[in-house]
Specification:
Blueprint (H helix, E strand, L loop, with lengths): L4 E5 L4 H17 L2 E9 H4 L6 H28 L3 E8 L1 H8 L5 E4 L6 H7 L2 H8 L4 E3 L6
Parallel strand pairs: 1-2, 1-4, 2-3, 4-5
Helix pairs in contact: 1-3, 4-6
C-alpha cells in the first residue's frame, strides 16, 4: 500500500506534535504529501448565542488552529515534505472521518484530552480507529 496522501489531525498539543513528526517521516519514506487538519470544535460554542464571549472563543480556537497547522507546515517544509494546512468546523471525530475520505492513511496522536473531558467525550483517536475506512497510525508520544 502506498501512503501518498497523509492526513494529520492536530490540536497543537505536545501529544499531536509527536504524530506530526511521525507523519512527516512517513511522507519522506513514501514520497507523500501531508494535510495538517485542525477541527474548530463546534460543540464548544454551537449552542450559545453569538455574543462577544462566543466570538472570543471562536477567535481563540481559530488562532489555536492556525498555530497547530502552522507548526506542522514548518516541520514539513524543513524536511522537504509538501504540506497543506486546513481548518474546518465540526465535532472532531466526525469531521476527521469525513475529511479522511480520499486519504491513504491518518496519522494522529491522542488529542490531549484527559480526565473528565476524556471520560465525557471519549477519545477522538479511539473513535477514528474504530470507524475509519483507511488505515490509522496512532503515534503514542513518549511524554504520555
Amino acid at each position: 500500500m502506498s501512503f501518498k496522501k497523509i492526513l494529520v489531525p492536530t490540536d497543537g498539543s505536545e501529544f499531536t506534535k509527536y504524530a506530526v513528526d511521525k507523519a512527516i517521516e512517513l511522507a519522506e519514506l513514501s514520497g507523500g504529501k501531508i494535510t495538517a487538519l485542525y477541527v474548530l470544535d463546534k460543540s464548544i460554542y454551537a449552542n450559545s448565542p453569538m455574543d462577544t464571549a462566543v466570538t472570543n472563543v471562536y477567535d481563540t480556537l481559530d488562532r489555536e488552529g492556525r498555530y497547530a497547522t502552522g507548526y506542522a507546515a514548518e516541520r514539513a517544509k524543513i524536511s522537504g515534505v509538501e504540506v497543506e494546512e486546513k481548518l474546518i468546523e465540526g465535532v472532531p471525530a466526525k469531521a476527521i472521518l469525513q475529511e479522511a475520505e480520499g486519504y491513504d492513511i491518518i496519522v494522529m496522536g491522542t488529542l490531549g484530552r484527559t480526565g473528565i473531558s476524556k471520560l465525557l467525550m471519549g477519545s477522538v483517536a479511539e473513535k477514528i480507529v474504530q470507524n475509519s475506512k483507511c488505515p490509522v497510525l496512532v503515534a503514542k508520544s513518549p511524554i504520555i
